[in-house]
Design brief:
Helix 7 runs parallel beside helix 8. The two termini are 39 Å apart. By secondary structure, this protein is of the alpha/beta class. It is 31% helix and 23% strand. The longest helix has 20 residues. The protein has twelve helices and 26 strands. It is globular, with a radius of gyration of 22 Å.
Length: 439
Amino acid sequence: MSRSRIVVVGAGFAGFQAARTLCRRVRDEAEVVLLNPTDYFLYLPLLPQVAAGILEPRRVTISLTRVLPRVRLVLGEADHVDLDKRLVRYSGPEGESGELSYDRLVLAVGSVNKLLPIPGVAEHAHGFRGLPEALYLRDHVTRQIELAAAGDSPDNRARTTFVVVGAGYTGTEVAAHGKLFTDDLVRKQPGRTCKPAPRWLLIDIAPRVLPELDHRLSDTAARVLRRRGVDVRTGTSVKEATAKGVQLDDGEFVETRTLVWCVGVRPDPLVADVGLPVERGRLVVDPRLNVPGHPEVFACGDAAAVPDLTRPGEFTPMTAQHATRQGKVAGRNVAASLGYGEQQAYRHHDLGFVVDLGGVKAAANPLGVPLSGPVAGAVTRGYHLAAMPANRVRVAADWVLDAVLPRQAVQLGLVRSYTVPLDTSSPELARVPGGPRKE
């Protein structure tokens, strides 16, 4: 008798945990297949530290084959799900096509950069959802400072002005780390000739930084940013982006060569193409993460509109905390559908949030206790070490080395602007001209 096959699509927080839970629950009684474009799980919260040169890129990547030895990894991007034939069709990394049959399916394809109908943004902005984008930003920022320090040019003002749009978790951390990074780069220039001084703008239409958090954490983050020299503009949005800068809705034109787009995320376009009911682009599921009418299909993470049982009538937000826990529940429920254990509904109360502001600064509220300063910084780093599935010693070692040694400021030149477009369904992959693409 052949074994049942469980296909997990996506290895983000939700997909990784689903596959990990499944291989522990079913062991060798069922085949677990993980379909993902890369051979690693990306610990996304530490990506700003990669862009700032604190962590090496491999520190935030977890080898799927090493951590999930019982899971068969298939490299590829899902193109289509055939619910009638129970098939997932995909494109491989070298342009080849393939398909996977399944007895159970877990959709955990995650999210991509959120786009807004603002002229010029898709052409001139870059997102911050994948490792290629972080590497591009580190090289790009380093290059702008070095070019500005090389001579007195009319373009220097634009080169040393960096605009981050979106004051949520990602945008706040990118601006906080970015300002420290460029200040450090300037100190390394001969004679410190970089003029004008680096200027960072953090822009958001919301009335305050980190609007999803309580006012105490929001105020703490804004205070740290402003003291550091970041120009925080709340209640402001971008009207247009051009090659020379951005036009704000208050009439000001900001000359810049750097526009980082962190306004939020949207579900992967694959979700809407499945042909099942969606809620704001997310697949509708019941509290057990099962798709109604399809007992063999489950969804979790950013791909699923999961009812929030702690807040009746609402859906769980698209956060890593929820995705991680939903992945575990999805794994248990899929195993239970095959006779291993019992199903359970997803219910989770927020345990708090942490925001790394660079250096020893952070804002955190573990278990609802608001913290700031070095104490919050220690809690934030401790949380990340505990949450990472592997590489903890390497990450901690990089933090120690960054504290005692000068940061390396070099351009690797591995990721170019055209390989990391904002409008992409696969931010985890750098686009190569002439190479295979997912439409």
